């Protein structure tokens, strides 16, 4: 898709995009604020260079044409990790998910066809041209207003039902949550410069009160009722994952637990499904598959809960993390580099994460809000198979702004710790392997920076001996995390030189470009650790398991196996917190045999590389940076 026509080709001068919204609104009789508000919630007015979203939506209005997107984009699932990540039972791998056929696609993934009929614009124009795309979206809104028997009013308040219909949701709660978000944008206003360099403004209308009673006339279903654990600000339904036994001592697809009474919940793990919504729901309801707590739909931010939060899902590939985390799967069957997530899903996800963090006291930082690609392998043999979603194109900076924790400097210049924060749209490192091995991916904004062995873009990338035991250099492949630091991650500074900053990373000094006039990191406060005096190096672990003496009779001792890395004397790493060694023994379907083993050995979690790691407290000393 890197050869797709530019969706910004018809925006040659400043103000063009703003005028395109105004012209489309006038042509179809849609209030400009409504058209701008809907577009903001879909794409934040970005054109994404004509590339589809993770659910096949094109352009600022996110007109969906998943048939075309499916035909053009590859499907793959990197890694072969055991999603459960516990040697006490056989491996449970998820494997690649089958993408939907064209016949299986619901109407919400085919809105571009309808927009073409209504606007007279060709599908190609709607996919690649912003003016046509905006007209298509305006035509859909106008049609929804007509079909509801309502006039084309100039008052945005009269368009609540049409906006709810635009979401594509088939249940009333999700449609209402989507419309409420749109009207919240209209009330508060918005302004930004798009990915095409266009400045767009939506003036605030603080006194706007939409006609919410219109929702009842849409005839949408009520969501499936059940014991959902969601904030009121998201539309959430209960679609349970099965807890079923199916012979030879095997069962699925999760474990019953009693969290947080039995174990604390310390992490939230962000995933990308690499499957359509309908396929995702089928998979999580298969007892032979794997499981997670929540799925989020890209088109409208709808949430489905599958497991009670007290139970343990099989999602992260690391049993220690699984036992102490909540997994959120974000819909995305397209793993192309230039695919993108809707604002609706980012907002819904952020609200859910804020709720979970508040409920369990989880810090809103990148040592506790993890990507699946930040979860460490449990032992050396599992490192290479660990998954790499949501990858370098997830906008962590925007996500943390929505979480209410924007990534800003917390220390003065030349601090001992930095937090990675490149400017997302302008940061476009070259990646390869998105569609074909070795082929360059389409240019796209990224929240990651690349790490070199010296302060030069020509210097080799740092090595990851866990991914490449033979000592080969890391690569720029989109799934290679060996020389990558991601937005929000904090590292101890090793050196600064000539517009470059070095951090301690995987036991080595790693450099990234960080010029003062265009910083890609911010100075930060933090707690760091280093090996105790007299120790040349200390081992690093992928899980924090108890010492052997802590295990009661009948529970097999789990090996405390170090990873192949070493934390060397003089190096420092940012600390995320500490925990006593803990192991959740759950090898049987009957939960009466489950046991939580706790030891006396204390571990610190650290930002060691792209993935987090653990070190024993007895091996290190801790100080302020």
Task: Give an account of the 3D structure.
The protein has four domains: 16-65 and 110-218, Lysozyme; 223-375, Lysozyme-like; 393-525, no CATH class; 531-624, no CATH class. The chain contains twelve helices and 28 strands. The protein has helices at 16-28, 32-43, 66-72, 111-119, 123-128, 130-147, 160-166, 172-188, 277-284, 319-323, 343-360, 396-402; strands at 57-58, 63-64, 190-193, 199-202, 236-238, 244-245, 251-252, 254-255, 267-272, 294-296, 303-305, 312-313, 325-330, 369-371, 417-420, 448-450, 484-486, 490-497, 500-505, 508-513, 521-524, 527-531, 537-541, 562-568, 573-585, 595-607, 612-616, 620-624. The strands form nine sheets. The chain has a six-stranded mixed sheet with strand order 5-11-10-13-9-14, with helices on both faces. A five-stranded antiparallel sheet has the order 20-19-18-15-21, with no helix packed on it. Strands 27-26-25-22-28 form a five-stranded antiparallel sheet.
């Amino acid at each position: 898709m890197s050869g797709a026509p530019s969706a910004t080709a018809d925006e040659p001068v400043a103000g063009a995009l703003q005028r395109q919204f105004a012209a489309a609104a006038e042509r179809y009789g849609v209030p400009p604020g409504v058209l701008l508000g809907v577009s903001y919630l879909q794409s934040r007015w970005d054109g994404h260079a004509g590339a589809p979203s993770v659910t096949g939506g094109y352009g600022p209005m996110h007109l969906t044409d998943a048939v075309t997107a499916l035909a053009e984009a590859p499907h793959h699932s990197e890694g072969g990790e055991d999603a459960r990540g516990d040697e006490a039972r056989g491996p449970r791998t998820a494997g690649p998910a089958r993408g939907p056929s064209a016949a299986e696609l619901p109407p919400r993934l085919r809105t571009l066809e309808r927009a073409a009929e209504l606007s007279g614009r060709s599908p190609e124009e709607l996919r690649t041209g912003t003016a046509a795309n905006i007209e298509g979206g305006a035509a859909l809104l106008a049609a929804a207003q007509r079909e509801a028997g309502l006039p084309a009013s100039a008052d945005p308040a009269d368009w609540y039902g049409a906006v709810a219909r635009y979401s594509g949701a088939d249940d009333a709660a999700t449609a209402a949550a989507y419309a409420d978000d749109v009207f919240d944008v209209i009330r508060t206003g918005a302004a930004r410069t798009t990915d095409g360099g266009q400045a767009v403004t939506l003036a605030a209308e603080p006194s706007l009160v939409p006609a919410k009673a219109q929702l009842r006339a849409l005839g949408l279903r009520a969501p499936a009722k059940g014991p959902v654990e969601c904030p009121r600000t998201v539309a959430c339904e209960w679609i349970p994952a099965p807890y079923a036994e199916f012979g030879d001592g095997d069962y699925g697809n999760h474990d019953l637990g009693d969290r947080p009474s039995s174990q604390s919940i310390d992490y939230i793990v962000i995933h990308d499904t690499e499957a359509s919504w309908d396929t995702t729901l089928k998979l999580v309801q298969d007892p032979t598959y794997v499981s997670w707590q929540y799925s989020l739909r890209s088109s409208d931010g709808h949430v489905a809960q599958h497991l009670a939060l007290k139970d343990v899902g099989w999602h992260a590939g690391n049993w220690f993390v699984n036992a102490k985390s909540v997994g959120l799967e974000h819909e995305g069957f397209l793993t192309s580099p230039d695919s993108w997530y809707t604002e609706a899903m980012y907002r819904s996800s952020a609200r859910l994460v804020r709720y979970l963090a508040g409920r369990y006291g989880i810090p809103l930082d990148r040592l506790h809000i993890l990507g699946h690609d930040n979860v460490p392998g449990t032992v050396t043999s599992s490192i290479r198979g660990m998954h790499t979603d949501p990858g370098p194109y997830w906008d962590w900076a925007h996500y943390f702004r929505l979480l209410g924790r924007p990534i800003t400097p917390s220390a003065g210049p030349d601090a001992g710790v930095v937090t990675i924060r490149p400017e997302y749209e302008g940061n476009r490192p070259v990646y390869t392997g998105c569609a074909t091995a070795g082929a360059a991916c389409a240019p796209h904004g990224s929240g990651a920076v690349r790490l070199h062995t010296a302060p030069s873009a020509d210097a080799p990338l740092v090595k990851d001996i866990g991914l490449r035991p033979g000592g080969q250099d890391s690569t720029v492949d989109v799934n290679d995390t060996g020389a990558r630091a991601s937005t929000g991650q904090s590292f101890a500074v090793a050196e600064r030189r000539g517009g470059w900053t070095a951090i301690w990373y995987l036991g080595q000094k790693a450099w990234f470009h960080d010029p003062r006039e265009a910083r890609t990191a911010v100075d930060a406060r933090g707690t760091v650790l280093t090996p105790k005096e007299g120790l040349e190096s200390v081992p690093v672990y992928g899980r924090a398991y108890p010492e052997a003496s802590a295990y009661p009779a009948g529970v097999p001792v789990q090996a405390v196996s170090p990873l192949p890395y070493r934390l060397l004397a003089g190096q420092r790493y940012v600390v995320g917190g500490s925990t006593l060694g803990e192991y959740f023994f759950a090898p049987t379907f009957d939960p009466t045999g489950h046991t939580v083993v706790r030891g006396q050995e204390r571990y610190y979690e650290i930002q060691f590389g792209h993935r987090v790691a653990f070190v024993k407290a007895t091996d290190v000393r801790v100080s302020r940076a």
